[in-house]
Amino acid sequence: MNIPKNCKYSESHEWVRLExxxxxxxxxxxxxxxxxxxxxxxxxxxxxxxxxxxxxxMIDSAKTTSPLLSPISGIVTGINEELADHxxxxxxxxxDEGWMFVIEPENTSDIKQLMSAxxxxxxxxxxx
Length: 128
Hints:
Oligomer: single chain
Shape: globular
Number of domains: 1
Low-confidence stretches: none
Number of helices: 5
Number of strands: 9
Strand order of the largest sheet: 1-2-3-9-8-5
Strand content: 25-35%
């Protein structure tokens, strides 16, 4: 399972990669594997103000529909428009081509509350 060291992780299996003043967000390799073949992704609107844990989209897979939760608070500044036509990118490349949205964090302390790669790996081992 792929758990990049340069990301932080939520208990609901979203990842956050801080790049300058913006944070890119997606779902983890573990999450996409559990969901199976992703067939549709609904993303938040650009300009939306999100809070930690707020439902901001949906992920439809062959198995189920799952909410997309915001792991940090802030304003959405970009979305991955490729996912509209190619939702399978989330399965193929969850940390690169399958990213979901970009947020300008309201408070960087939100990111500090998330798990490191090692903590997330331990979390998965304890909860599977």
